[in-house]
Design a protein that fits this description.
The chain is α/β, with parallel strands linked by helices and about 325 residues long. The chain contains 12 helices and 10 strands. α10 links the parallel β8 and β9. Keywords: Carbohydrate metabolism, Glycosidase, Hydrolase, Polysaccharide degradation, Signal, Xylan degradation.
Amino acid sequence: MDETPVAAPLAPDWPALRGLMPSNVRIGTAVNGQALATNARYRAVLTSDFNAVTAENAMKWGQLQPTRDTYVWRASDDLVAFAQENGLAMYGHTLVWHHSVPPWVSESWSAEELRELLKQYITTVVSRYRGKIWAWDVVNEVLDEDGSLRDTIWLRKLGPDYIADAFRWAHAADPDARLFINDYGAEGRTGKADGLLRLIRKLRATGVPIHGVGFQGHLQWDKQPVDVAGNLQRFADLGIPVAITELDVRIQLPMTPEKLARQAMLYEHMLAACLAVSTCESFTLWGFTDASSWIPHNYPGYGAACLFDTDIRPKLAHSALVRALREGRPGAAGG
């Protein structure tokens, strides 16, 4: 591996979040493949603070199957191997997502051909990692903001049953993996959250093997979702596990002490909401350092969204989570 210079001490010198979390709740992060391969400090902090990892991009369809006849496994295999070597739970992300459909897939193909293609892809990927991945995001972002099904190639060509089919195919390929539906904008009480609740009720009523609900949580420092704990509890009341899957809290630049303080409170608020629900299984950040965050590229004028700064040193948000977990009261869960 090529190594970047390490300016700060390599061994973390702060309390590790993984050691403070309840034993039944994983704390994870999305992993940037380049940083993992080239930065020793990144790897040290990753394995010190977290006990679960998600592939940021390495397991998306466009990455894994660039042509119809070619799979490229190196990046995903490397991450799975790293997770196993370091005792980290591996979360698979994601099997069906409208943004990761390879460009060679054509909507002009028949419904039968597209259905078989999707089945083959899900079966191939899940089978390859059978027994090595504890949970999969089977379908990702299938809802519009109003809670209706998103208009995608799969809905247009296969109809709404493609969602149930995807779960059944994944379950057949690895019966022991937990299968999640994942979406953004549903962490608080919104129209999308209402639609997600309706969809899950319908799927479970027909025996679809859906085992969990993932709430992404791409938040803004000055906008707190409405009643996160109460909303998560609605899903828990169905007897289904819940998870925060992609949390970050972006700040409108420039940073100020006030913005960092409000960011810290929002991180703590989200952790409190998840832990307040008895079926909370994991709490995952979408990257842990500003050095490799996706936010500046996707939200111009925003940044500093992670628990660690660009030098991979903990920020106020990290300290807030440590303090709250040590005191056994991660923030006020209401609001």
